[in-house]
Amino acid sequence: MNADVLWADADRFPPSDDDVRRVREAGFGFVPVDGHEVATFRRCGRDAEAVVAWGGRYDAAVFDELPRLRVLARCGAGYDNLDLAELAARHVVATYVPGGSDDEVAEHTIGLLFAVARKVVASDRAVRTGAWPSSRDLAPMARVRGSRLGLIGLGRIARAVAWRARALGMQVAAVDPFQDAEVFETAGVQRHSDLPSLLEWSDWVSLHVPGVPGGPPVLGAAELAALRPGAVLINTARGSLVDTGALVGALRSGRLGAAALDVADPEPLPPDHPLLQFDQVVVTPHSAAFSVPALAGIRRQALDNALAVLTGHPPLTPIPAED
């Protein structure tokens, strides 16, 4: 019986003709499916030895429907949606694609910053309704040059953000206990020893740390209360890093000046969600990583990983073993 490569979420992330050709030329069946529901895997996954995974939670309920699974190839750098312990217990190789969209996420972060600073979304909405807002209508508007950007985390993406922000004349600082002094110095980023001091210092706060399934949020009510009045929160990392209820409260009280979010908890946000009732909130649909070259490269490397395992070779980028 031939093995299949099952491509999940094909409705949102369709495979290219080249992706399909590569799999079939390697001697495997190619099965694209919409979504990532357990019922979908029950219907289509009995012969799947590889799954190319985008969004959704992958846990025991899913793996029970994939009895032949040998490799789960995650399309992206984050893997908090994978139950790694369960995969290890089933001797399934888990892979990911680190660095595939660092530039895109960094650019999106800066784009969200400008969307808030220059009231781009509010202005566009007003003009489309026939209005022509004055400076009074759009006040307050921020000057980006000289303002303070605080980064929570100083990994690859945060450093890419810092490089762009410094080019704009921003002051940049970060907190990251896992990076040494040389990393901060090379990036030209001031180091803060703790989160409260960074929050108090920053005009803009941007999150760049991985999500931890079931872990506490990095920014809860106490942390949001520690922000300087009128500060802006940017999140292109994971929605679970911020306590959504506390975020709504901080916006409602005016303590938080605005929020620019590419990620949310939950996703997608329902149309009646409280976050969507604020004019000072800008939301994009978890699209920061998207670009034609980034998605092509991510698809290619995920398939490289899957096909390597299926043909008896080690994967290029296995997910690091948990400590």
TrEMBL record:
Return the GO cellular component terms, semicolon-separated: cytosol
- TM regions (residue ranges): none
Q: Which InterPro entries match?
A: D-isomer_2-hydroxyacid_DH, D-isomer_2_OHA_DH_cat_dom, D-isomer_DH_CS, D-isomer_DH_NAD-bd, NAD(P)-bd_dom_sf
Q: Highest taxon of the source? A: Bacteria
What GO molecular function terms would the record report? glyoxylate reductase (NADPH) activity; hydroxypyruvate reductase [NAD(P)H] activity; NAD binding
List each copy of the D-isomer specific 2-hydroxyacid dehydrogenase catalytic domain by range: 46-318
- Sorted alphabetically, which keywords does the UniProt record give? NAD, Oxidoreductase
What would be one Pfam family of this protein? Answer: 2-Hacid_dh_C
Residue ranges of the D-isomer specific 2-hydroxyacid dehydrogenase NAD-binding domain? 110-288
Keyword Oxidoreductase part of the UniProt annotation = yes
As for family, the record states: Belongs to the D-isomer specific 2-hydroxyacid dehydrogenase family.
Name of the featured protein: Hydroxyacid dehydrogenase
Instruction: Tell me what organism the protein belongs to.
Output: Nakamurella endophytica
